[in-house]
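W.,

You were right to be curious about this one. When I first looked at the sequence I had no strong expectations either way, so I just let the prediction run and decided to look at it fresh. Below is the sequence, 420 residues in total, followed by the output.
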Amino acid sequence: MTSSDEHRSENLPSPPRSGAGRRRSCHDGSVLGGGQSIKLARVFGIRIGVEPSWFLILFLIIWSLSGYYGDLFPGGSDTTAFALAVISGLLFFVSVLLHELGHAVVALRNGIGIIGIDLWMLGGVAKMKRDTASAGVEFRVAAAGPLVTLLIAAACFGAGTLIAGADDALSSASFDAVSSDETLAVLGYLTFINALLLVFNLIPGFPLDGGRIVRAIAWWRTGDRAKATRFAARLGQICSYLMIAGGAYFFLQGSLITGIWLAFVGLFLGQAARSAEVQSRLTGRIEGMRVADVMDAEPVAAPAELTLDRAHDELFARYGFPWFPVVDAEGRLAGLLTREAVEAVPEAVRAQRTVASVMAADVAGERSELRVGLEEPLESLLGLDGLGRLGAIMAVDGEGRLRGVVTLDQVRRALAPAAS
């Protein structure tokens, strides 16, 4: 599943070119994508996060399933029903996470970096650093998630069959019979919900997985990615209209929750399809451009061994900017120094403290927050959280040495001809 995440810029200006003294204006970073999420863990080096809306949906799922399991096992306690509901709700989101990891792992194997995976109200999204480079890669990445979901559904149904036989496993998955086994009931729910997730994701409308598969096929047949994207996005809009109409039908028939939810998903899908079409036009304009083509090649940086009193006087007081990149003795990007970090240290001891002691370190595994490679396509910047959060991102060479700074203004200027 995919989403169009919005990111709020903190309006932090970028360090100026030496002697230029320029200041970046404040911007909202929402057009560049990216989203605010709470980090949970890292899996295969991929950041896993959840958006606040995820907690609401998890609560609703647990509340709904508590009633279901209470009816299914009328002789059991409320605690048992609640425990089964919690287990089922969490395993559902594990299923969604595995679905997104399927996309991410195949993308990584095809040389596409992954910014992270976020779980949210409508499922999950694996954020890739750039779009796929060929129809074949697009097909493999798009199909990987549904394949994982299919395997999960098959595994749950198979486990249920081993426990109680195929007929009881099928009845449990379709909620047709009262089960006497808690494990079978949970497996039945997981079989059903993963089958539903599979069907939903295979709807042939971009940016759902089915729409991406359609785009891959159209791209393969026409050889034109932009045209294929527009075709798949329009299919997505048609599917959204059908969902909204279906939601209205269910609403009028008295199924209020089903109707409202289906219409809501339809509205989301239509908006996401339109956004995907617009983004396709924008990225088409910057296709072939590299980070090195637009970056400021003379960034001002703070040496890691510089004392804090000198950093305050020579950088922050002189330029008036709230942060600077930090480099080590070899010029490699080491982290980020903020004015707040310096001013938090008492003036009396700043001469004895170095920049390295208070900087936010750019450690392995978190580098997508601050850095990007010189030869990376400019398109790869559009979803980076660091660009939206800081208003700039550092460009480094193959050895990790700081070579430039790319600001939101520079990216938007590159995109501007497409919007005009």
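Here's what jumped out at me. The chain has two domains: 37-202, 291-419. And, maybe more interesting for your project: The chain has 13 helices and eleven strands.

Coffee later to discuss?

I.
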